[in-house]
Amino acid sequence: MPSILTLRHYSHELVAHSHAHAQLVFGLSGRLDFEVAGRGSQVIQQTLAVVPEDEHHACGSPYGSRCLVLDVPPRDWLRSRLGTHADTCERILERPGALQLNAPQSQLVGWLAASPINDAVIAEQGAALLLASLASAAPADARAQRLPLDALRAYVERNAARPLQVADLARLAGLSAARFHLRFLEETGQTPMDFVRQRRLSLGRELLLNSARAIGEIATCVGYASQSAFTAAMVREFGRSPRALRRELRDKTGE
Q1: Rounded to the nearest 10 degrees, what angle do helices 166-173 and 177-188 cross at?
Q2: pLDDT category, 255, cuts 50, 70, 90?
Q3: Best label site of 64, 67, 68, 93, fewest CB within 10 Å?
Q4: Which residues cross the membrane (predicted)?
């Protein structure tokens, strides 16, 4: 990864790429046309663009622009430098788009742009100050925002028959696939695909009890390519084959 803080000049030449770290682009002068994750914005003085990690983005400036760019260090750096601000900062870095700076933040950006940011100490301390300032000024809902687990559960159940990937769920949460995977693991203690598997099998269990569908048909409905694969998954999850589950469940309900 390059230096944490750099001054960059942009021209009419289009820059399009992605990188494995998050990035903040602060406008100093001119106008930079920016697009990230399909969302367009303009970076001018007192604004910044948020580029989450691994998100493809493109930018160009028809008349030229000058920006301060913060290439965000890894998560352990954020935790060690930002303390209680780290969680909120990570929430900010998850979602692409443009943000408006307040007056003190704009002054800090201007001061750093005029400072010797090639000095590692100044660059690291300046980056930490900028990130902490953004976190402290974030709305309360951004600080406490959690994953929409109910919506994710409903989405999996509606789409259980088709192939599902982490990226499908990440889009629903407005996050990159990598960031979504990490957040999901932190909040639920399981991976997104374990969640998908459990929801499919729970739905299969409900269909065994509440419908007369053949087991092979139920397997297809919950995303399994064959009855044998569905049977093996049900045995691992519930300790019973689908036929045994259907018989036991119906015995309990007297049907």
Answers
A1: 80
A2: low
A3: 64
A4: none
d(CA 169, CA 156): 8
Exposed / middle / buried, residue 95 (Cβ in 10 Å: 0-12, 13-18, 19+): buried
Q: In the structure encoding, which two tokens stand for residue 187, read together?
A: 């909040």
Residues 207-231 pLDDT 10s: 998 888 999 999 999 999 999 999 9
CA triplet 67, 103, 127: central angle to 5 degrees? 50
Predicted local distance difference test score (pLDDT) of residue 223: 94
Average the pLDDT over 148-169 and give the result: 91
Spatial separation of the C-alpha atoms in residues 193 and 212, rounded to whole Å = 28
Enter the DSSP assignment of 116: -
Task: Please report the sign of the dihedral spanned by the C-alpha atoms of residue 140, residue 142, residue 147, residue 149.
Answer: positive
φ, ψ of residue 68 to 5 degrees: the values are: -100, 125
Cβ–Cβ under 8 Å, residues 200 and 156: yes
Question: Coil, strand, or helix at residue 192?
Answer: helix
Give, as one character, the DSSP assignment of residue 6: E
Domains of the chain in sequence order: 5-144 (2.60.120.810), 149-253 (1.10.10.60)
Determine the length of the chain.
Answer: 255
* Residue pair 46/100 in contact by the 8 Å Cβ criterion: yes
| Predicted pLDDT at 152 | 93
Percent of the chain at pLDDT > 70 equals: 94
